[in-house]
Write a structure and sequence with these properties.
It is a single chain. The protein has 2 helices and 5 strands; from the N terminus they run ββααβββ. It is α+β, with helices and mostly antiparallel strands.
Length: 75
């Protein structure tokens, strides 16, 4: 399933393997928290975010540069 998320005034596609509404809410919370308290590599990935893929309790953050792509835990 594909849905859209508005984060930092950008529309970001989010791909889900199941229809878990809590995963979207949790993703938004985690991204906001990591943007302020995360390490520089994670902040750089979030700043250049182009899509997110959620599988189970993990979110893979895809950025403009493939080397900046990271996977984070939602729970």
């Amino acid at each position: 399933m594909k849905t859209m998320l508005i984060f930092q005034n950008k529309t970001i596609p989010v791909y889900l393997t199941d229809t878990n509404k809590q995963a979207i809410d949790k993703l938004t919370t985690v991204l906001n928290r990591k943007l302020t308290t995360g390490k520089n590599a994670l902040k750089k990935c979030i700043a250049s975010l182009i899509s997110v893929e959620i599988i189970g309790s993990e979110a893979t953050l895809h950025s403009y540069y493939e080397r900046d792509t990271l996977t984070i835990s939602l729970y």
